[in-house]
Design a protein that fits this description.
The complex is a heterotrimer of chains A (289), B (234) and C (634). Chain A has 289 residues and is mostly helical. Chain A has one domain: ABC transporter involved in vitamin B12 uptake, BtuC (Orthogonal Bundle), CATH 1.10.3470. In chain A, 72% of the residues lie in helices and 3% in strands. In chain B, strands 6-7-8-3-9-10 form a 6-stranded mixed β-sheet, sandwiched between helices. Chain B is an alpha/beta fold and 234 residues long. Chain B is globular. With 634 residues, chain C is α/β, with parallel strands linked by helices. Helix content of chain C is 59%, strand content 10%. In chain C, the strands form 3 sheets. A 6-stranded mixed β-sheet of chain C has the order 8-9-10-5-11-12, with helices on both faces. A 4-stranded antiparallel β-sheet of chain C has the order 4-3-6-7, with helices on one face. In chain C, α7 (185-203) runs antiparallel to α8. Chain C is elongated. Chain C starts with a helix and ends in a 6-residue tail after the last helix. The chains are: A mainly alpha (289), B alpha/beta (234), C alpha/beta (634). Chains in contact: A-B, A-C, B-C.
């Protein structure tokens, strides 16, 4: 594969990284909760897509009809529990870590630790592609990027133009004044967490389209997702999309020029540097809050 | 329309207010003045529903507010202009104002309310797409007042609107308060600018060390030596 | 006390070390030794983690980095370079310390790091090391490294015996270290960092130094133990040593066992390893991690203090549960073997200890010591003319100081000289810059322009703990005691780390006297959560005074008090002043300031508006205007 091809593919698959990261970024930024269980929800979404598509012969994209509402409910429920027991900040990291481990082990128990992958009959997108001159773009890659743009675009519109979006932004900037104007933080948090779960379902589906699944995959996502979240600015939607493309490109570049194994090194080093020198993200104006 | 009876307010186990009694009639502008640290902001925040550690009663048109959830207090017609303005910094003027109309009763009327606010504060319309943090102190104060008005309140709680503003701007702000009151909105005005505040209020209360130590018409308070001694400590 | 404890550890070590030699005689299956070996390995790991994260509160997700470093050091040096195994141990230790200090230097320098950010930073380290190891052919190259069994003395017996002795040595050393640290100055410093780091810094605790020491210990033990781990697994792979399994285990073990005590990780390791072993043995492999995750998630919320504390609170119930379950199972003999009974007994004891207590109607702090009913203030008692103090030299020079925050000028052109023996009231309307000035004087922030000289030394750029040693301490408006220590120990802390550092025993004695000065002598054994606000304010003052300052900054020390308590607090301030300490008091309550202060400085919008005798200053027309209203129409 030529370098140009690899980089472009990397940039496009960065869309999937952005979809994975956007839910985590929003709940971290607005609710001050670092939800590691989000990775578990992506994993669950991926396996459910695999299972439903394989068992019932449904188009993988249509499995979203089941997985999205399910993950929405799970996400909202988890947030309700966090609220109810006063879990936030560092504690949220620990509790959600525990939940992630539980999810991974459960997935392993149900589906075994072997690699699972949707066959070609089940997953028509695996073999589809678009050709532009000498460049070939596999369908899953295009789908990932397209989905990311639509999702981020929709989220942006909701946040900027609707009352609910304004309420969320106000809530994040000044919680008690927002409350004085009628914003119910309990309900809002649950809706936001539910939406975050829904994005996890979508991310899982995208992942299942072009990858083999194994229960321990979430650990490989840590570097990528945290890099996207922190580089894009915690809670910044558009920044997350740009950062996703950036991380995808960077990973592809490193893999092609040196070795795929070096990608985590580069990503985590980028995270450390960003935290040290520009914790508000590469694309936000103004100083860190 | 507002009645506060024997209000005790706690911050943890520190008591901030002791047995506060006050009332505001329909259409009145009433002042609460007093030295720093007396508890004026605590009083405003408690009436606005932001403070829950409370004993006593707060009644707005007969409805008991102390048992109402924080985010539902505004549905009873109470809107706040907080101390230090506290506009949402990374939202536009337009968004800040629309947010003011978030509550169920006000949302459908938000376009009319917006016209009304722009009429009162034309400068806000000029800057409607700017981020609130880029506005000057005076403009932010107008924005905070406008935001509260978007909620179509019957009672406006104002916490030190003159803080950090130049004299001319303070004049504009106080003129706006009077205009708002003329339209029938009752106002609770908490101020450090004692003499200026008592000029536009009909009645006032003097709050010191968490207690109401004097009350009466504005004229009476202005002439009372208690005000000076409690504020200056002499 | 530490010496006696360490002697105890030597005894325990000697007894356990004898096991491999007497194993055959007493008929102990090798299996038990192997299991014990695993327990000891995890005891060492969890203990080393806890010395940093439990004691200081800085949560590390990076334990795998040290284990991996140690494992690969041994694997590569013995496997590929032919170095003798025993030499790899000190090399491992050194590398572990170097890595730890590097991480610490990065992460601890920036004090703005909240707990979660530190956790994420430490999470990154094992991933980075793993990546490097995988790529580098000389280290791993993706193939893994075989570790061969070294030669060891014949008398020891088999390889498992040898491994047991290695793990025993390291674990004993680790636990002994944790024990010694906990009861030493070092441990006290870490506890104060965990409870309220910036307060500790302001009292004279060199927080950066102690945090670096803690992470260095963490790294040292983790790496050496990792070297032995390499021996144990025989084949070192990147996933095996740098993975998240290791931090998961040590975190769960310490959370379960208890993070503030050296016994905690020991208890946690014993319980978790035994339970995991029994579950695997019974065929419940698939449940092991689920239970681990559940323990973590639930315990952090329900019983964050851990088993060690809970067992201490309910010793008999827990012991009874343990004995009961083991006894029943032993008698009935219908299920399992002794180890299973032991495990079941432990679980029973743990559940009994952790079971949420029936909620006694929460007695609000201070209800037992009801605060005095508000009474009409009588100012007579305070208006007695105080003799003019004899003023000494200038102790604090604030020279043309300005402080900007972004574009906002919080302070500008402030020049004030404070002489020994003064009691200066610092007043001014909201936003006038009082708090900024206090923060500048205590060294928490530095001036943008100008100098601040205390006792002849320019304090610009000095860490707050150095400023405390030069002679300036402060109180906080909302009292911030060290919650895990008693009232007496809170004050003892300040004495131990204050200007003249003292031993623990001396400090406790002196602390008693300080408490009497403020009237808290009878509350020495209470915890801060049990005393009321007034008492916490007094504690705040006692602690700041105990550090031995020449200048004491009181930041709104009377906030939230009723008139009777205010009078009492004022009497205490007078007593402190009479004892020879120069005081700067920031206060809203002007009637109090006017009576207490020998001099009043009025700030308004960042500049000094007036400076002089209280009565004169408060009648100054500009001051009156500042307070009553600048915009009053004539």
């Amino acid at each position: 594969m030529s370098t140009v091809q690899a980089i472009l593919s990397g940039a496009l698959i960065g869309g999937m990284f952005a979809v994975m990261a956007v839910g985590l970024s929003l709940t971290w930024g607005m609710l001050r909760i670092i939800n590691l269980a989000h990775f578990g929800m992506i994993l669950l979404g991926a396996y459910l897509t695999f299972q439903i598509a394989t068992s019932w012969g449904i188009d993988p994209l249509l499995t979203l009809v089941v997985t999205v509402p399910l993950m929405f409910v799970l996400g909202a429920l988890l947030q309700w529990a966090f609220d109810r027991f006063g879990v936030a900040e560092l504690n949220s990291l620990l509790v959600s870590f525990g939940i992630l481990i539980i999810v991974i082990q459960t997935v392993s128990n149900v589906w075994s630790a072997d690699f699972q992958r949707m066959t070609g009959e089940v997953n028509p997108y695996a073999t589809g592609s678009l050709s532009l001159g000498r460049l070939v773009f596999p369908a899953p890659t295009l789908l990932a990027f397209g989905t990311a743009v639509v999702l981020v675009g929709a989220a942006h519109v909701v946040l900027q133009r609707t009352f609910a979006g304004r309420a969320l932004r106000a809530f994040e900037q000044d919680r008690s004044v927002a409350s004085a104007f009628g914003i119910d933080h309990r309900r809002l948090s649950m809706v936001l967490a539910g939406a975050s779960g829904a994005t996890a379902a979508v991310a899982g589906m995208l992942f299942a389209l072009s990858n083999a699944l194994t229960p321990s995959t979430p650990f490989e996502w840590f570097g990528i997702v945290f890099a996207v979240v922190i580089l894009g600015g915690i809670g910044q939607i558009l920044g997350t999309l740009v950062a996703g493309v950036l991380v995808g490109t960077l990973s592809a570049l490193v893999s092609v020029l040196w070795s795929p194994s070096l990608a985590p090194f580069v990503l985590f080093s980028a995270i450390i540097l960003a935290l040290l020198f520009r914790p508000q993200g590469l694309f936000t104006q103004g100083a860190a809050r | 329309m507002l009645e506060v009876r024997q209000l005790d307010v706690f911050h943890g186990d520190a008591q901030a207010l002791w047995g506060v009694d006050l009332s505001i009639g329909d259409g009145e502008v009433v002042g609460v003045v007093g030295p720093n640290g007396a508890g004026k902001s605590t009083l405003v925040n408690t009436i606005a529903g932001l403070h829950r550690s409370v004993r006593g009663n707060i009644l707005v048109d007969g409805a008991e507010l102390t048992s109402v959830a924080s985010h539902r207090v505004c549905e009873h017609g109470v809107a706040t202009v907080p101390e230090g303005r506290r506009v949402f910094p990374r939202m536009s003027v337009y968004d800040n104002l629309c947010l003011g109309a978030y509550r169920k009763g006000a949302r459908s009327e938000h376009r009319d309310a917006l016209d009304h606010v722009y009429g009162l504060f034309p400068r806000l319309e000029e800057r409607s797409s700017q981020y609130a943090s880029t506005l000057s102190g005076g403009e932010q104060q107008m924005l905070a007042i406008g935001r509260a008005l978007m909620a179509r309140p019957r009672l406006l709680l104002m916490d030190e609107p003159s803080l950090g503003l130049a004299p001319i701007v303070v004049d504009e702000v106080f003129e706006a308060i009077e205009a708002i009151n003329r339209e029938g909105v009752s106002v609770l005005l908490v101020e450090q600018e004692i003499e200026r505040a008592l000029e536009i209020t009909s009645r006032g209360y003097l709050l010191a060390e968490g207690r109401i130590v004097a009350s009466g018409t504005s004229a009476e308070l202005l002439q009372s030596p208690m005000v000076r001694s409690s504020v200056l400590g002499i | 006390m530490i010496r006696r404890g360490l002697a105890g550890f030597v005894v325990v070590f000697a007894v356990l070390a004898a096991l491999p030699f007497v194993r055959e005689e007493i008929g102990l299956p090798v299996f038990y030794l192997t299991l014990a070996s695993t327990v000891l390995f995890w005891i060492a790991q969890a203990t080393s983690w806890n010395i940093l994260s439990g004691y200081s509160g800085y949560f590390s997700f990076g334990q795998g980095a040290f284990v991996g470093l140690g494992a690969y050091t041994t694997a590569v040096l013995t496997g590929r370079r032919g170095v003798d195994f025993f030499w790899t141990l000190p090399i491992s230790a050194a590398l572990g310390v170097i890595l730890a200090l590097a991480v610490g230097a990065l992460a601890f320098r920036l004090r703005s790091f909240r707990g979660e950010i530190f956790a994420l930073l430490t999470l990154a380290v094992p991933f980075i090391l793993a990546s490097l190891a995988r790529v580098n052919e000389g280290i791993d190259g993706g193939q893994g490294v075989v570790v061969s069994i070294p030669e060891f003395p014949e008398q020891i017996g088999l390889f498992p015996d040898f491994l047991f002795l290695l793990n025993l040595t390291i674990a004993t050393a680790a636990v002994a270290a944790a024990f010694a640290i906990q009861n030493s100055r070092f441990g006290w410093a870490l506890a104060s960092i965990r409870d309220a780091e910036d307060v500790a810094e302001g009292l004279g605790v060199a927080t950066y130094r102690y945090k670096m020491m803690a992470i260095a210990v963490n790294g040292l033990i983790g790496s050496v133990s990792g070297s032995v781990f390499a021996l144990q697994i025989g084949f070192v792979t990147v996933e095996g040593v740098f993975g998240l399994a290791i931090p998961l285990f040590v975190i769960v073990m310490s959370v379960l066992g208890g993070r503030s005590h050296w016994l905690g990780p020991v208890i946690g390791a014993v319980v978790i390893v035994t339970m995991q072993d029994r579950l695997a043995d019974a065929g419940y492999e698939g449940w092991r991690l689920i239970i681990l995750g559940a323990i973590l998630a639930i315990l952090v919320v329900v019983a964050p203090e851990g088993l060690q504390v809970r067992l201490q609170q309910r010793p008999w119930i827990s012991l009874g549960a343990f004995a009961g379950v083991v006894g029943v199972l032993a008698v009935l003999r219908v299920w399992g073997e002794p180890l299973d009974w032991f495990a079941a007994g432990m679980v029973a004891a743990a559940v009994a200890a952790l079971w949420p207590a029936r909620r006694r109607r929460a007695v609000p702090a201070g209800a037992a010591h009801a605060r005095a009913a508000p009474v009409e203030t009588s100012t007579e008692s305070l208006s007695i003319e105080r003799p003019r103090p004899v003023l000494g030299d200038v102790v604090v020079e604030i020279d043309e100081v300005a402080r900007l925050f972004g574009g906002v000028r919080a302070l500008d052109g402030v020049t004030v000289g404070i002489r020994a023996g003064e009691l200066v009231g610092l007043v001014g309307p909201n936003g006038s810059g009082k708090t900024t000035l206090v923060n500048l004087l205590s060294g928490a922030i530095a001036p943008t322009r100008g100098r601040i000289v205390v006792g002849g030394q320019d304090i610009r750029g000095l860490q707050p703990h150095r400023v405390a040693h030069i002679g300036v301490t402060r109180t906080y408006q909302i009292p911030r005691p060290f919650d895990s220590m008693t009232v007496l120990d809170n004050v003892a802390m300040a004495i131990m780390f204050g200007r003249e550092s003292r031993s623990l025993v001396d400090a406790r004695r002196a602390a008693g006297r300080q408490l009497d000065l403020v009237g808290l002598g009878h509350r020495g054994d209470a915890k801060p959560a049990e005393i009321n606000l007034h008492e916490r304010q007094l504690l705040e003052m006692a602690r700041a005074v105990a550090a031995g300052p020449t200048v004491l900054l009181l930041d709104e020390a009377l906030a939230g008090l009723n008139p009777v308590e205010i009078d009492q607090a004022v009497r205490v301030v007078r007593r402190i002043h009479d004892a020879g300490i120069t005081i700067v008091i920031v206060e809203h309550l002007l009637r109090v300031v006017n009576q207490l202060a020998t001099r009043v400085v009025v700030l308004d919008r960042g500049s000094v508006l007036a400076d002089g005798e209280p009565q004169a200053v408060m009648r100054n027309p500009e001051v009156v205007r500042a307070y009553l209203g600048k915009h009053a129409h004539a």
